[in-house]
Amino acid sequence: MTRRLLPSLLCVVLLAASAHAAPQFLDDEAEPACDVSFSLQKGTAGRFSLRFDSQDAQNSYVLDATPAAATFALLKSGQKRVLSSAPVNWKAQNTVILQRRPWMMRLLVNNRVALTAFDSTWNAGKIGAEMTGWSWKDPRVQPVEAIRFDDDFTRAGSEGDNSWKVAGGKWTLSASSSQISASNATMSSNPFAYEASAPVGTALSTTGRRFWDSYDARVAARPAGKGAIGIAAYVQDPKNYLAFVWSGSEGAQSRRLIRVQNGATTILASASGAFLPRQWYEIGLRTSPGSIEALLDGVPILRARDDSFGQGGIGLLAQNLGAAAFDDVRVRSYDFYRQNLSASNGAWKTSGEFRLTGRTGGDNYRLIAPLKSAPDGAFGLVAGFRDPKNYAIFRAAAAQSNAPFRGREQLVRYVEGKPQILSDRPLSLDLKRAPRLTLSAQGGALQIATSDGIIAQAAQSGLTRGQTGVWHPAAWGEETVLYFPPAPDAPKVAAKMEDDAYMVGWASATGEWPPTAGDKG
User: Fold this and answer.
1) Helix (H, G, I), strand (E, B) or coil at 89
2) What global pTM score does this model have?
3) Which H/E stretch holds residue 490?
4) Mean of the per-residue pLDDT values for the chain?
5) Which of 55, 97, 112, 128 is the most buried (most CB within 10 A)?
């Protein structure tokens, strides 16, 4: 999950660079969601081991670094099991960040994701290191929380860009009416916008925390003419970021997902389709582990795999454009994972005929999985998996299958190994189309759907609490999506509506037309 900085909880610990025979632990335990950052000096031999979520000497997670590789491992009851491993091109001095999130851990080395693994055995615990031939210094443990950032620029005067840092071009707070001032800004219907000017070159303004990761960022944008507008993510500085850039000139690359690294631009994905000037659009970027996606008016239009940076704030940009207005910036955590069923990073675990994923004890999730073309046997999606005797399953089988429920699709709950059929109907899926199925689970309510609509649903207490996954993995395509939906935003109520006596009275059940007593009461 993506988070924002909590300065009041920041724990900074300075440790001397030395070798330890046993782990030297930091004073404070890690939160379930945190970043651990430090400088690491590579050794020509030996190793560096970071223990985190440590319960005791026999139980923890371990990050092992050797001169040519890095490994995440689970240490349980003294037995070590590798979760994920990859080669790493270590420098003599390295900036290292361990991102610890519920179910996920990521290693960032010198502003690039080097390693990712998934596991939910441990959720919090001590952090410490042991090393031979390597050294670390300046470790910081940073608790983080879900991102929630909004800016509609409804302010006046010098307040216009306090939270924004201009990194190029000219940026000003503008309003459609000269009558707007600080005294009446809160009563306006928001005529304000953040305006960029860059007749030549790039105008860039940034905001957010360097620790932000995995988020959905959107902004309303209105280009006054041709040129290009865009939104950036994982901004490190003006020469290092990811961005969706949209041009007003038609061509095969009018829409581009780009990576700017050390000032050099690489196109990650592109498509045709220019904007029309003097119209408002919503442009957006979604980042998730190993993936970035561009959105236009809420619809995904470009996607690419990329492991650059791994974290950072957002930016607004305009290129070769006399004027462009931006408004209604919104950033939210985006707990979204694209994973292959055959991934060797711990995201999927095998239990008999099941391939399971997600957090143990989860109760709010969605799994999207594509069926292979016309599977001959039975197949299914699993929810609320706690053990092989307790789970819920949507199962189906083609008419030619040998399964006892061939030609049907069923929703079944197993409690202590005993099945209870919750729904049963003839097979409606068109298996020749290789449909994508979506399993949605929340608070005991379970739903299975395709692009054509809902095909099965049920609700029972405890039905969905547990892991999700697939039954008979060979029937499913490789790329799946696991998504943990955020809590809905609370309704936004203007302060005027809460404080004004007339508005409060009008909205109250006892206001405006108060009851009056008569002869009969």
Assistant:
1) coil
2) 0.84
3) none
4) 88
5) 97
Specify if 274 maps to a domain. Answer: yes
CA triple 277-278-284, angle to 5 deg: 75
Q: What is the largest CA-CA distance in the chain?
A: 97
Domain termination residue (choose one: 334, 358, 383)? 334
Find the helix or strand (DSSP H, E) in which 362 lies. Answer: none
In SS3 terms, 401-427 reads as: CCCCCCCEEEEEEEECCEEEEEEEEEC
- DSSP designation for 407: T
Write down the residue that tokens 């349980």 correspond to: 76
Structural domain harbouring 60: 3-144
Question: Looking at the predicted structure, is the pLDDT value of residue 397 above 70?
Answer: yes
Radius of gyration of the chain (CA): 27
Residue matched to tokens 């080669």: 87
Please state the domain count of the chain: 3
Q: How is residue 22 annotated by DSSP? A: S
User: Residues 86-90: contacts with CB within 8 Å, 24+ apart?
Assistant: 86/114, 86/115, 88/114, 88/115, 90/40, 90/42, 90/65
- Show the tokens assigned to 355: 């391939």
The two three-digit tokens of residue 130, written as one number:
């042991």
pLDDT at 360: 87
Residue 514 lies inside a defined structural domain of this protein: no
For 65-105, write each residue's pLDDT tens digit. Answer: 999 999 999 999 999 999 999 999 999 999 999 999 989 99
DSSP string for residues in 179-198: T--TTTGGGS---EEEEEEE
Q: In this predicted structure, what is the pLDDT of residue 488?
A: 77
CA 48 – CA 224 distance, rounded (Å):
54
189 and 325 share a domain? yes
CA dist 4 → 52, 109, 331 (Å): 21, 20, 11
Please, are residues 446 and 365 in contact by the beta-carbon 8 Å criterion? no
Q: Which of 213, 473, 249 is nearest to 340 (CA)?
A: 473
Whether residue 467 lies inside any domain: the answer is yes
What the block records as the tokens of 475 is 């029937």
Q: Mean pLDDT over residues 41-69, rounded? A: 95
Only one residue has tokens 């492991």, namely 307
State the Cα–Cα distance between residues 38 and 96, nearest whole angstrom. Answer: 5
* Strand positions, DSSP E, 78-147: 79-87, 93-101, 104-109, 113-118, 126-132, 135-146
106, part of any domain: yes
